[in-house]
Structure formats: C-alpha cells, structure tokens
Amino acid sequence: MAPARGWPVALMCHAVVVQALTYVVRPTTAYRALELDVPASQLGLLSGAFAVVPLLIAISVGRMTDLRGERLVLWTGADLMLVATVGLAWLADSLMTLLLWSVLLGVGHLLTIVGEQTTVTVLRGALGLDSAFGRYTLSVSFGQIIGPGLITLLGGDGAIPDTSAILRGAVVLAVVLVFSTAAMRARASGPARDDSPGSLRLAMRVTGPVRRELINAIAASLVLIAAIDLLVVYLPALGAQAGISAGTVGVLLSVRAAASMVSRMFVGSLVARFRRLPTLGASLALSALAVAVIPVPMPLAVLFAVMALGGLTLGIGQPLTMAWVTEAAPPGARATWLSVRLTGNRLGQTVVPTVAGFAASSAGVGGVLWVMAAALAGVALVVRRGRPA
C-alpha cells in the first residue's frame, strides 16, 4: 500500500486528541469519585480499572491488528472512548459505575494506541521509522499537556472542580476523536495481511539475534517509562526535603516535558548522523547521569539545567525503541510485538514504583533515583554491546 501524502498531519491530530481526552478524563474521574464521597484510599481502584484489563489483552489486540488491520482497531477504540466518556458525564453515580467506565476507557485507549503505532509502521513513507515515531511521540506529549489544561479551563478554581462541565467538554472532545478517526480511514490498513502468521504462538516465535534485539528494545522502553514515572512521583518529595516550593517543582517537571518534546523533533536527524543504537545508548547514558545528579544539593538554576538535560535524553528513547521493535519484529507481527512492548511498559509502571517504595523506606528519595539511574546505565550498556537484557 502506497503511503498517503500528508498522513503525518492526520495521525498527529488523532494522537493529540486521544491523549488530551485521556489526560482530562482520568483526573476528572478521581475528582468525581471524591464528589461521591469515595475514600481517598480507594482512588487507586480507578487507576487499576483503567490499566489492568488492557494489560491482560494488549498482546491479543496486537495480534488482531496484524490480522485484521488498523482500521477496525482505531474505530473500536474511538467508539469505546466515546461511550466511556458519555457514561462518566451522565451515568456515573457510584464507585462501581466509575470503575465500569474506567475499564471501557482503558480498553479504548489501548486500542487507539495500538492502532496509531501500527499506522506509523505502515504509512511512514519517506520519513523513515525514527522520524515518523519522533513526530508521533511529539504529538502524544502535546496532547498530554493539553488535557490537564482543560481541567483548569472548564472546571473553575475550586479545590474540587466542576466535574460535570469538564466531562461534558470531554464528550465533545470524544466526538472530535471519532471524526478524527474518520479522517484517518483511507490511511489505515483494512484487510488482513497475507504475511501475518496465523496464530499468536507463531507470531511470538522468534529466535537468536531477533529475539535478542526485541528483548533489548523492550527492556530499554520499560526502564525509560519507569524513570519518567518515578521523576513525576518523587521529585515533589525531593523538593519538599530541599525546601523547593510546589510551584517550582511543577515548573521543573514542565521543563522536563518540554525538553522531551524538543528532542523528539530532531530524532530523525540524530539517527541519520549517528545511527539508531549509538543514539539510543548515548541518550540512556546521559539520562542515567541526569537522574543520578538530581538528588545532589545544587543551585536551583543548575537543577533546571539538569532537568532540561534529562528531558532531552529521556524523550529520545521512546520513539527509538518503537522503531527498533518495529524493524526487528517478523513481517506481519509488528503490531503484536509493539503490543508486547506496551505490556512491558505497563508492567514497569506497575512493578517499579512498588519496588521503589520499598527502596525509599530504607534509602530515601535519593536512593530511589540512584537505583533508577543505575538501571538506565545498565540498559545503556546492554544497548551498546548488543547483549541480551
């Protein structure tokens, strides 16, 4: 199938809308739960409802995408996100209904992400995988910034915002997502592909160097995602210990996110000059350095520079691991292996913070970040040496 001219614009808009919708609805769901007098100790159930079912079905969704094409997955995901948002806006009056709509939202989000990433691999055109995934992840980051801003715009300035107004606005955004999916219709693959292995077992059957490359790429992706999550969670605690205000911590995190967006603009140029694996290895090593230095007492201006460095280098890793998995996966099994990567990321986001919590109880916040820096350095060595993770 020839790549459609202008496809990045349609795909990038779709990615922005998906992430903006997700990042406005999920926090608002927590606020709605508080309005319903759900104890704060039970808010974690909402996060689990969003994440657990997608974790269980992600690989099967990838296999279906390989066999049936991106169009079905994209449309089903958009429809589920619309239904979930409508339910949260008008049919959520208990914790059980909030959990139900959160499950649907999580499944819809997974389907759209798998569909988008597979569309990148099919329609990358002359951009190349690295540049195409760089543009895609740039759009993802932009949507993740827009979503929380909508809470401020629509919800007012109370401690608990007007969730009804926010969720009605989110329904409008979900309708935009459906129309955005329609705009991508001609650019998503329709029928099953002839080169797709028939069963999940066959799609996962890779040996030797291919298996080694896939494991390395997935390990690098998992560690990168975990490092970003831990920075978001533990930087406020580190700031409190150092007497840094919450507002300044928020600006530091925004600097990290903005720097990641900047680096993703230039992923293709970096890979063209230095090649993919050296670029990824160097970015992981510099990320390890930045994360290791963050707990060290330093002037605030220097800390801003360190966060900018961390953002630049952490931002490079995700598009490169997507491209690496795509290139290493067998023909007809790319969506399956991209879904394995997503599953690894979700596991990392679930397991690593738990382990970090135990580490923090004995070694403090600094110890958590130093352990994460060591993990980044270890994966950097694995990538550079080409050995199994």
TrEMBL record:
Subcellular location: Cell membrane
GO cellular component, one term: plasma membrane
Chief location of this protein within or outside the cell: membrane
Full protein name: Putative MFS family arabinose efflux permease
Gene3D superfamilies (UniProt xref): MFS general substrate transporter like domains (1.20.1250.20)
Residues in Major facilitator superfamily (MFS) profile domain copies: 213-389
Cited SUPFAM superfamilies: MFS general substrate transporter
TM region(s), chain numbering: 7-25, 45-65, 72-92, 98-115, 136-154, 166-184, 214-237, 284-312, 355-383
Organism listed in the record: Georgenia muralis
InterPro entries for the chain: MFS (IPR011701), MFS_dom (IPR020846), MFS_trans_sf (IPR036259), Sugar_transport-like (IPR052528), Tet-R_TetA/multi-R_MdtG-like (IPR001958)
Keywords: Membrane, Transmembrane, Transmembrane helix
One family name in Pfam for this protein: MFS_1
Domain of life: Bacteria
Membrane topology, from the record: Multi-pass membrane protein
MF term (GO), any: transmembrane transporter activity
